[in-house]
Structure formats: structure tokens, C-alpha cells
Amino acid sequence: MCARYVITSPAAAIRALFGYAEQPDFPPRYNVAPTQPIPVVRLDDGKRSFALLRWGFVPAWVKDPRNFSLLINARGESVLDKSSFRNAMRRRRCLIPADGFYEWRDGTPRRPYFVRARSGGPLALAGLWETWIGPNGEEIDSVVIVTTQANRALAAIHGRMPVIVAPEAFDFWLDCAKVDATTAAALLGPAADDRLECYEVSSAVNRAANDSPELIAPVPRVDGRAAPEPATPAKRKKPNNQPSLF
To answer: In tens digits, what is the pLDDT along the chain, a chain of 246 residues?
Structure first.
């Protein structure tokens, strides 16, 4: 399961990697949480396009989103068949830029770990999007992160991980007109064991209001054990001159 993630690369670096024409500016985020608007990349008239969609998927057939359980992850093993995701897998695949994500290791208490690319830089998480249209014409554009079984590097922490799409496979995943859902599903496997690294971080990430660089700092260890945690980081304040899209 992926319930929190990080996007900290400069907007220009994200744009260069994902190749969309828009030039949005957005601040670094260290604790992106469900129900928030998040950046996604999808095809629009055959070209890659940037958009902000709500993280929390609402299938088109839902009558009232207020009475529908929040869907933040979709199991890759069932997206071809499950009614919530089947149509989106066929027609509305997208990429979600991220610089890492959090997973929680079972125990008492559950401990958070930060996972990132071993080489540094942003990752592309596989996503599905949908537009829900209400009886009065209201619309909700929403997105879900596709997950798969954890690779050996992460299995000791959690049994699931987001599907990570390599840059050379971006078009393969995004182009729903040329690549059918069954073929695209070949990408829905775990990342190579040597691609990611992870380490324990502060439980301050458990609170969605906390959003600061301290959240991704490794927990100090003493004699092989995590040292007592410092005070909870304060919520990050956005500079007044910083344009923000989410």
C-alpha cells in the first residue's frame, strides 16, 4: 500500500523528465496525502499533459462519492477485471511524479520508512484516472496509484509497493489508443531489487499536517536501535512569493 509520498524535485526537472508542454510551478512536498490534489501526467490528443487530480479514485458508476470508500491504491493483479478500475485501465492510464514514498513496517508501534531511487531523482508511479460526473453536472477528476508485490529489497518492510514505470516505458503505459490494457499490464511488476533504497524515518510523517524536509531524514540509531525521536517537526509554511498548485 502507498498512502503517503514525496515530490521534491524542481518543477523544471519534473517537466524535463516527463516531457509535458505546460510550465506549472509548485513547491516541494514531503507528505502528500490522500484527498489532496496531486500532479499527474497523461496523454491529451496524443501529447503528454500535466494535470492536478484528486488522490482518491471515484469510479464513473458511483452514485454519490460521499458514500463511497476512498480508493487510493489499485492492486495491479486485478485492474483488468475489477469493475472500479477496468475501464480506466483500458482508457485512462497516467503517471504520477514522485521523489519517493513511505511504507510502514508492522509492529508496535508501526514504524515508517522512506523509499527512494538509489541513484536519486524522481520516479514515475503508475496511475489510473477517472472523471466522475454528478447528476447536476458537477465533476470530480480523481486518480489512484497502482501497486504490486514488493521486491526483495522492500518485502521485509511491507508486502506491497507502487508500480514504478521506467522512462523508456512512459509512452507504452500512457498510450491507451495503441497499447491495450492486457499488453500494458506487463509493466505491473515490482521494481528491480537494486533500484530503490529505504531507511527508517520519524513517526511525524503519520500526521498529514506535517510537511518539512525533516520528515525524510533518517532516524539516528544507537547500538543498532532507533534513538528517541526529536520534537515533531512543525508544519511547513509556504513562502508568500511561492506560486503553489497543490
So the answer is: 799 999 999 999 999 999 999 999 999 999 999 999 999 999 999 999 999 999 999 999 999 999 999 899 999 999 999 999 999 999 999 999 999 999 999 888 899 999 999 999 999 999 999 999 999 999 999 999 999 999 999 999 999 999 999 999 999 999 999 999 999 999 999 999 999 999 999 999 999 999 999 999 999 865 556 655 555 444 454 444 434 455
Helix, strand, coil % in the chain, rounded to nearest 5: 15, 35, 50
Calculate Rg over the CA atoms of the chain: 18
Model-wide pTM > 0.85:
yes
From the candidates 2, 94, 176, 198, give the one annotated as an active-site residue. Answer: 2
Q: Sketch the domain layout of the chain as residue ranges.
A: 5-218
Cell readout for 3 is: 498512502
Dist CA 54 CA 44 (whole Å): 18
2 part of the active site: yes
Q: Which among 94, 103, 130, 198 is annotated as catalytic?
A: 103
Terminal C-alpha separation, the chain: 22
CATH superfamily ID and name for 5-218:
SOS response associated peptidase-like (3.90.1680.10)
